[in-house]
User: Fold this.
Amino acid sequence: AGTTFNVSPERAVLKGTVRSYDTPSHRMVYRRILEMATHTATAFGCKATMETVAIVAAVVNAPEPTAFVRAAAQCVLGQANILEHRTMAAEDMGFVLQEIPGCYFFVGCSNGNATSFPHHHPCFDFDERAMMDGVAIMAEAAARYVLSGDDGRANGNGHHAPAPTDRANGR
Assistant:
């Protein structure tokens, strides 16, 4: 706030984002920010207000679709290439996952050279070949989901048993 280091401005504005693993944590962080700002302002004889804008929701994967995606990724990439860790992804997908159970996952997109830069870096260079892995994982997960059920067609080893023949309809 202000335009020089030795003048106290009449007003200061602090902007930022909040990311969390779930909605209750998200709300708690907002409450704590407001509490700290209010008490700090009071200590210095000032007033603090807070305006929040819900830009994105926490991305929370549902267990069942996540199991399908994990199995598909293991089939496509092999277990050694599956990295599992939590992130505080901030994507519109968080809103979708509040309504429809699903799974949000990352596909590595670095070609492994020493000049690779992280996401959001101005020099980031996405290796388009990674899209093939992403499409293959999504197709495998969709096939596993469609073929799952009580009839046991998805046999769990990365291969699918043939669908039963519907002789009455010539299929």
